[in-house]
Amino acid sequence: MSKISREHFSRLLKRLAYFENLTVAQAKSNNLLADYDVSVCPNKSVPKILTLSHAGRDDLCRLTVAPSGDNRLFGFREGSEFHILWWDPNHDVWPEGKIKR
Q1: Residue 101 CB-density burial (10 A; 0-12 exposed, 13-18 middle, 19+ buried)
Q2: pLDDT band at 52 (very low <50, low <70, confident <90, very high)
Q3: How many helices, marked H, and strands, marked E, lie in the chain?
Q4: Rounded CA separation 88/92 (Å)
Q5: Which terminus of the chain has a smaller tally of CB atoms within 10 A, N or C?
Q6: 30, 22, 37, 29: which is closest to 76 by C-alpha?
Q7: CB of 9 closer than 8 Å to CB of 84
Q8: Distance between CA atoms of 73 and 47, rounded to whole angstroms?
Q9: How many CB atoms lie within 10 A of CB 85?
């Protein structure tokens, strides 16, 4: 939901290369990847956006980009493929206190 800075973009590319070497189970066990049920999303605009622009998808997936967990990438996952939707360094897509599945 935000534009990405050059510094963050460089970090993102390095992390994506790292993620390519992990299985889904490894990424989940390290809390680098999480699946979310959009019906319980604290940000009520997210389900509306997904319904309008992505054929009513009701799931999201989050990749943690920075080791601190501050920078996150949201999208949806089909098997081991991650489809990018939003860069979310300010936790606007899924604010803290999140519910995940």
Answers
A1: exposed
A2: confident
A3: 3, 4
A4: 6
A5: C
A6: 37
A7: no
A8: 17
A9: 20
